[in-house]
Design brief:
There is one protein chain. About 25% of the residues lie in helices and about 30% in strands. A hairpin with a 2-residue loop joins strand 2 and strand 3. The strands form 3 sheets. A 3-stranded antiparallel sheet has the order 1-2-3. A 3-stranded mixed sheet has the order 6-7-8, with helices on both faces. A two-stranded antiparallel ribbon has the order 4-5. The protein has 5 helices and 8 strands. The longest helix is centred in the middle third of the chain and has 15 residues. Helix 1 crosses helix 2 and helix 2 crosses helix 3. The protein is globular, with a radius of gyration of 18 Å.
């Protein structure tokens, strides 16, 4: 995944995969399917035998600064932050805040809570701490706030995500809130509706 958006990314066969590294899966079969990108990201948990764990989607990640943040990282950190602060999240999305001049970047989040945290700052700190623990690339980018500053968190109005999907004509079981985006396509309209 660290080369996914390169114009000529390195493609590796099964014999060259590494355990614990995120990959975008491409399938080729002798039945005529040729280099089909299935859209899932995987991590190999074993190479003998080959075992994988689905970690997300190729379209839903944040890697604006080399942090390789996948949905599995976020869901795990979110679970820990909720556990630590008594919060319950019903919906969320996150996106990068790009660097300007000498100012570092950040991740901006909007969370809709069914149970608000006891203390929002404690929730943000726990979320950030667990992301650092889970993802060493994120931790490296957060080191001393040089590349990435502390996460920016907004609390969503009740049913914000429902109304956003409704406005886009996307209500129904086949439509889901995009959890992560490497651009601001989803979060900016949500923040505008949240005013």
């Amino acid at each position: 995944m660290d080369q996914f958006h390169f114009s000529n990314p390195k493609v590796v066969s099964l014999e060259d995969v590494e355990v614990g590294k995120n990959y975008a899966m491409v399938i080729t079969t002798n039945g005529g399917l040729w280099r089909y990108l299935i859209g899932d990201t995987v991590v190999f948990t074993s190479t003998n035998p080959f075992r994988i764990k689905i970690t997300g989607r190729t379209k839903h990640y944040i890697n604006a600064f080399g942090e390789e943040l996948m949905i599995t990282n976020v869901e795990s950190a979110l679970s820990k932050a909720c556990e630590a602060t008594g919060a319950q999240v019903t919906d969320f999305t996150g996106a990068p805040v790009f660097m300007k001049g000498n100012e570092g970047g950040a991740h901006e989040w909007i969370f809709e809570f069914s149970q608000h945290p006891d203390n929002l700052d404690s929730f943000i700190d726990a979320f950030d701490k667990h992301l650092k623990t889970i993802n060493s690339d994120y931790e490296a980018k957060r080191y001393n706030n040089i590349t990435l500053k502390r996460p920016i968190v907004h609390i969503a109005k009740n049913n914000l995500f429902y109304h956003w999907l409704e406005a886009k004509g996307k209500l129904g079981g086949q439509n889901k809130v995009p959890r992560l985006s490497n651009d601001r396509e989803y979060i900016d309209p949500l923040l505008e509706m949240n005013k």
